[in-house]
Amino acid sequence: MIVRARHYVTGLRLDFAVEDGKFKGIRDANTAKPDREAGWIAPALFDLQINGCLGIDFSSPTVTVEQVRQVIDECRKHGIAGLLPTLITNSFEAIVHGLGTLKKARETDPVVAAAVPGFHVEGPYIASEDGPRGAHPRKHARDPDFDEFQRWQDAAGGQIRLFTLAPERAGALRFIEQVARTGVVVAIGHTAATPAIIRDAVAAGAKLSTHIGNGSHAVLPRHENYIWEQLAADELWASMIPDGHHLPPSLVKVIVRAKTPRRTIITCDASSLAGLPPGRYGEWEVQPSGRVAVPGTPFLAGSGSFTDSCVGNTIRMAGVSLAEAVDMASAHPRELLGLPNWELSEGATSPFMLFDWEPGGEFVVREVIGVGSRRP
Length: 376
Ligand SMILES: [Zn+2]
Description:
Layout: E1 2-7, E2 13-19, E3 22-28, E4 36-43, E5 45-50, E6 52-53, E7 56-57, H1 65-77, E8 80-88, H2 92-108, H3 110-115, E9 119-122, H4 146-155, E10 160-165, H5 172-181, E11 185-188, H6 195-204, E12 208-209, H7 226-232, E13 237-240, H8 249-259, E14 264-266, E15 279-281, E16 284-286, E17 292-293, H9 307-318, H10 322-328, H11 331-337, E18 352-356, E19 364-369
Parallel strand pairs: 1-4, 5-8, 8-9, 9-10, 10-11, 11-12, 12-13, 13-14
Antiparallel strand pairs: 1-2, 2-3, 4-18, 6-7, 15-16, 16-17, 18-19
Helix pairs in contact: 1-2, 2-4, 8-9, 9-10
The structure holds zinc ion.
């Protein structure tokens, strides 16, 4: 199969020969008719934080293996070939059920196994107060417990790769050291920490700020606060949600300038309501703008968007290049987790996406080809 598109870094129009999901040859586009043609080609997207979509919630106590696969298939339509399914603050048993279901889905479905290199547990060791807690249930927010974490890691078959917590909780700094030592990436998020505690968390081994600027107070001290401190900490990567609702364009730009594109990661933080039409769904609602909110509060409940539209938004809001924005949603999160980069090079078997995009315009994924797809 010959795929013709412009390389997302160089802009060169190339013919990619692909066989059995492997790049067999790459050359300048010629006159022969290609099998597939699109505006651009790039490595497929990878998201650290997907909570579900289409009404399916990975944190639901009844989530099934089949539902996990449905989410993977929907993500793929948006260019996302890899993701960390994310479980949020919940009871011990509910998190065990979620992790066990995700583990079983990986073991029984090769498409899930190819797309899911591990899981993200966000909470329950987060701030209890309104604002930093976000839409996580207050009754399950609690202090870190390494034994509990180890039991979750057992239920997950060792597949928890990312763990988000609030470092001001009692015992959190010691917990960060213990968890980081096991190879799991520890992230700071849903926190009300003082700047000093943010610095202590970095020293203890935290590597990421989870969706910086969200899961925070509506009003903060103007100089000394946990957002500035994390922006200034060069040791921390930062994920952000540039879906058009979670952060104003100026803040997206400031985050990228402070962290530099090199340490910025795009996540969509898709909620279970992503991909659904506007309406009330239990405690949450999808508003006509696509905003997913807790009705009657200023707080958001995850995103209704997927990573593809966030890439287009980041180019517009932060003034970065196409290649920089794509890397924030593919190469960077994989690097953070210690996963091999997805490459567009001869011999590589990386999943890739074909998409259309023009400067200032929308980012529209046509298809993902490669690992985990049902066609070559
Ligand atoms: Zn969150």
